[in-house]
Amino acid sequence: MRVVVGITGASGAIYGLRVLEELKKRKAEIHLIISKNAAFIIKGECGKDLEEVKRLADRFYENHDFSSPLASGSFKIDAMIVVPCSVKTLSAIANSYADTLISRSAINCLKEGRKLILVPRETPLDIVTIENLFKAKQAGAIILPAMPAFYHQPRDIDDLIDFVVGKILDQLGIEHNLFKRWME
Ligand SMILES: Cc1cc2nc3c(=O)[nH]c(=O)nc-3n(C[C@H](O)[C@H](O)[C@H](O)COP(=O)(O)O)c2cc1C
Questions:
Q1: Spatial distance between the Cα atoms of 82 and 6, rounded to a whole number of angstroms
Q2: Integer Rg of the chain from CA
Q3: What single string gives the DSSP state of each residue in 8-45?
């Protein structure tokens, strides 16, 4: 499975890192793009530097690198995940404003009819962001907000993170035991 992972500058960088770890375990071919603010937040929230994170991917691209294969819809991928997805990058994707490699690659998914999973993290939501979520959904994206549940009896932060990561893997059709399903 060839997957593009975009990590943008919303809080919750750990979701992106955990998705990378789970995809790597399953030997997915990972193409990674990290925005400038995401790199800053990864350091601040997770204490990791970029080089460490890059090692989880098969290929890494700068977010301004439009010479990369990901800039073209002709490069075949199975899915793209933007995790976490800032409201700024959501806006770019929803409005077809391809100013970064992350937004361009996501827009390619929409135009080519490929799976695009957006994991926004913001609260409260302004009306423009709600409109952008609506537009992105209408265009074919899967909107998977970073909203952990509590019915699986989480004991710590890792259990909350793994709930969201598990929901992302569900959308990719990947089997996992990251959380206990309701009534299982
Ligand atoms: C510490 C910090 C936390 C942030 N958290 C969020 C957030 O949770 N959600 C969000 O949409 N933007 C958040 N932002 C703002 C984005 O980083 C900012 O809008 C940036 O332009 C996003 O660009 P990018 O999507 O290219 O990474 C945060 C910024 C900082 C510095």
A1: 5
A2: 15
A3: -SSS-HHHHHHHHHHHHHTT-EEEEEE-HHHHHHIIII
**Would you state the structure tokens that stand for residue 52, as one six-digit string?**
């460490």
The residue whose CA is least distant from atom 14 of ligand 1 is 10
| CATH number belonging to the domain at 2-172, selected among 3.40.50.720, 3.40.50.11220, 3.40.50.1950, 3.30.470.20 | 3.40.50.1950
Please state, as a whole number, how many other Cβ atoms lie within 10 Å of the Cβ of residue 45: 13
Show pLDDT as tens, one digit a residue, over the chain (184 residues): 999 999 999 999 999 999 999 999 999 999 999 999 999 999 999 999 999 999 999 999 999 999 999 999 999 999 999 999 999 999 999 999 999 999 999 999 999 999 999 999 999 999 999 999 999 999 999 999 999 999 999 999 999 999 999 999 999 999 999 999 998 7
**CA separation, residue 1 to residues 27, 71, 77, 174 (Å):** 8, 19, 8, 10
Q: 157 C-alpha to center of ligand 1: Å?
A: 21
What are 94's two structure tokens? Answer: 């929803």
Residues 1 and 28: beta-carbon distance below 8 Å: yes
Atom of ligand 1 nearest to the CA of 40: 31
Distance (Å) from CA 68 to ligand 1 centroid = 24
Put the strands of the sheet holding 59-62 in their side by side order: 59-62, 29-34, 2-7, 79-85, 115-120, 142-143
